[in-house]
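help with this:

***
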Amino acid sequence: MNLPLYKKIEQDLLDKIEDGTYAENELIPTELELAEEYQVSRPTVRQAVQTLVDAGYLEKRKKRGTIVKRPKIEQEFTKVIESFDSEMSRKGLVPKTKVIAFRKDAANEEVAGNLEIVEGDDVYKLIRLRYAGEQPTVLVTTYIPAFLFKELDDVDFSTNLLYSIFKEKGYPIKTVSRRLDVIQADDTVSDLLDVEVGAPLFYFHTRGFTDGKLPIEYSISKYRGDINSFVFEITENG
C-alpha cells in the first residue's frame, strides 16, 4: 500500500532525528524549506511535522521555529507494580541507580503516619538518583520501617532492586497507593536532575503494602517534567 506523502516525509524526518542529522535542541528547516526540499505543499509538511510534535520528537517554539526534542519516557508504574529497572529495560533504555545516601533515621510525623509506626521510631532512609541511559530521570527518597528489616545495612542498592529485597526478606509488595502533585525544582534537585531551578517536577508519594495491608515503604519521588509522562488506566465504575 502506498503511504500518503506526509507519512513518507514524517518517516524521513524521524530517520534524520534518530541518526543525528537533526540533533537534539537544534532547529529543523522551516516549513517553506522542507516544502521545497520534498517538493510538496506546506500543508503536507505541516501535517508531517505536527505528527512528530504530537509524538514528542519535535517542539514548536514561538519566534524560534521547531526544535528536536527527546521523546518523553512513558512511565507506567501508575497502573502496574513494576521496578524502575524492569520498566526502563522493557522500553529499550539502560537503567542506572546512584545511591546518594542510606542510613537509619528517626521517623518524623509524616513518615510515621504513612508507615503506621510511632514518631521517632527507627527507619531506613534511602535516597537514590535513577537514570534512563545517561540522563537523570527521578530522585527517590524511600523510608522503610527498621523493625521489620534487621539486615539492610550491607545491601548495595545501586545494583539490588528494593522490591526484590523486600520479597527475599519475606515481605513482598502486594499493593501500592500513590498521590501525584506538581512542584518546582529547588537548588539541590535542579543540580541532581540537571534541570533549571523552578522547572516543573512530578511529585509522587507512594505507600507500598505487603500481606495484611502492612505498610513497608513510603517513598517520595521527584520526576523530571520535561522527559517523563505517565500512563493511567481507568475502568468504568459499576
